[in-house]
Design goal:
With 194 residues, the protein is α/β, with parallel strands linked by helices. It contains five helices and eleven strands; from the N terminus they run H-E-H-E-H-E-E-E-E-E-E-H-E-H-E-E. It is globular. Pfam families: Rhodanese.
Length: 194
């Protein structure tokens, strides 16, 4: 019994080293599961857990095509996507995005193929942590129990002041110098089933 308690305590201690302080998470990035990582923590957790954690880039196909993506992600499955005839969204200042109805089923297919299920660790990343938090909530509703969101995302947050105000230079995967590439691995990409 003492041996099991020591193993559990050690595991909890090691795992808690990867927990971003939830008190620092803006409301828009908060999730039902309250499991957060910054980009460096996400990289370290994926490195540590390897195939026991599934890392998903939830940005649109256009974003990853032109901005690149982390090299260690297992898959790119857009949580939202621009429909072919997307109207302009005045409120958000961009073309309208629709939730990808295949997001949950595609993740389930890929995780099953990787020998993983709903009780395994899932790490989600988007541009800045907003969409990944919504995708995490959907997965929690679908019964996933360990869904982490990368709160600073791939590009990071906007600088509020200074000469780079309005640019995504504050934090995030790229700004942390973590491995990423413009060259995409086709096997990791999502192809809609029309």
């Amino acid at each position: 019994m003492k041996k099991w308690m020591a193993v559990l305590l050690l595991g909890a201690t090691c795992f808690s080293a990867f927990a971003f302080d939830a008190a620092q998470v803006p409301d828009i990035k908060q999730t039902k599961a309250a499991l957060y990582l910054d980009a460096k923590e996400a990289y370290a957790l994926k490195q540590k857990m390897a195939d026991k954690a599934y890392f998903v880039d939830v940005r649109t196909r256009g974003e990853i095509s032109y901005v690149g993506m982390p090299t260690i992600v297992d898959a790119s499955i857009p949580y939202v996507e621009h429909p072919d005839d997307a109207p302009w969204d005045d409120k958000n200042g961009r073309f309208k995005l629709d939730v990808n109805s295949d997001f949950g089923p595609e993740l389930a297919r890929r995780m099953t193929a990787a020998g993983l299920g709903k009780n395994d660790t899932v790490i989600l990343i988007c541009r800045s942590g907003d969409r990944s938090s919504r995708a995490a909530n959907l997965l929690t509703d679908l019964g996933y129990t360990k869904v982490y969101t990368v709160v600073d995302g791939f590009e990071g947050d906007l600088a509020k002041t200074g000469p780079q105000a309005g640019r995504r230079v504050v934090n995030g995967w790229k700004n942390a110098g973590l491995p990423w590439s413009y060259k995409l691995d086709k096997s990791k990409l999502y192809f809609p089933k029309y």
